[in-house]
Amino acid sequence: TNQDDETLYMLMEAVMGGELFGYLQERGRALSESHARFYAASVILALQYLHDRDLIYRDLKPENLLMDLQGYVKMADFGFVKKVKPGAKTYTLCGTPEYLAPEVIMNKGHNRSADWWGLGILLFELTSGSPPFAANDRLSMFKKICRRELTWPKHFSMAFKSLLDRLLEVSPTFRMGSGLTGADEIKSHPWFEGFDWVSFEARKMPAPYTPKAQAHPADTVNFGKRTVLNHVFKCTNLKPKEPFDNF
């Protein structure tokens, strides 16, 4: 962090590939399972990192996943992150309605299992084009979530459906990822058979989509107008020609 007489600055990584949400809107159609698998791997590793530190994320959605210029996604917006010790629960109602786990809606207390429910919702949306429990109003949607009333798209593979069936388990105790092995249980599921986790973590795996090249380091070409700030703060010591030099 830094500050001047008028402003407090927080320096963060510039992830200039745009939101996953924006890419999906521009694409206009659902992703293939292999395409979604690449993004799921990033999310799983990010959640595993948090959970290993007793932190739960609680706001997984395409809008909170940013792409770097190599096409890898990174998790953003940690406003709902909370430290929850093993065996404990938290009762705050927070998150995006379409992604809320049943135990959050019913105020039964939740832990890291709620994040794995969110992964199931994300994967369903990426590969079908809409969340699994969409409804005309929020109350109806919450009822569908708690009863797990969903229709499986016909194009889902058996392995993929098996994965989602385990992630979208109403009982957090039996939900995939909630056990002692955590994320490793998900990473070893047949849907990830043949996926090279070592290559992926080393960033040697080609991304299924690479964002547009930038004309200059501060180019926001990959962000829609909705996400670009109209007001730019004057940074006292920022060189205009090299804003991210040696970042």
TrEMBL record:
Coiled coil: none annotated. Residues 1-192 form the Protein kinase domain. The keyword Iron does not apply. PROSITE patterns: AGC_KINASE_CTER (PS51285), PROTEIN_KINASE_DOM (PS50011), PROTEIN_KINASE_ST (PS00108). SUPFAM superfamilies: Protein kinase-like (PK-like) (SSF56112). Keywords: ATP-binding, Kinase, Nucleotide-binding, Serine/threonine-protein kinase, Transferase. GO terms for cellular component: cAMP-dependent protein kinase complex. This is cGMP-dependent protein kinase. It comes from Dunaliella tertiolecta (Green alga). The lineage of its organism: Eukaryota, Viridiplantae, Chlorophyta, core chlorophytes, Chlorophyceae.
